[in-house]
Amino acid sequence: MSTTHPITELLDRDRRYKLEAYQFIREALSYAHDVLRLHEAPSDEGDETRHITGQQLCEACRIYALEQYGFMAKLVLNRWGLFETGDFGEIVYNLIEIEQMKKSDSDRREDFDDVFAFDTAFEPQFTAASSDEG
Q: Residue 17's closest CA among 82, 83, 62?
């Protein structure tokens, strides 16, 4: 009987991502549900689903990273092996494989591809202040 946690085995098997990347995805998922209130409406059968789409999770990851790490968000994510939104999908599907996350029948790994460009998604957004003087 193995006493090794499934995430440890996963990290040994797939060395592309650091443990922090997996933790980040789990935290971003909670953030999507609890803060952003992203989830599908309950179905007619009364299913209280909290499922979100791959695109929604990617956007939650972007917002959460900016909130947590500010201007350093891209650098932090890159350090953990995250360079594009497809990496979020790889982590999610790795977690599904070890039964740490679930997917619906309509979910696809490709739902995470090219949701936004990492090169620009974490840049500071400045807005011009309007002035009534003139």
A: 82
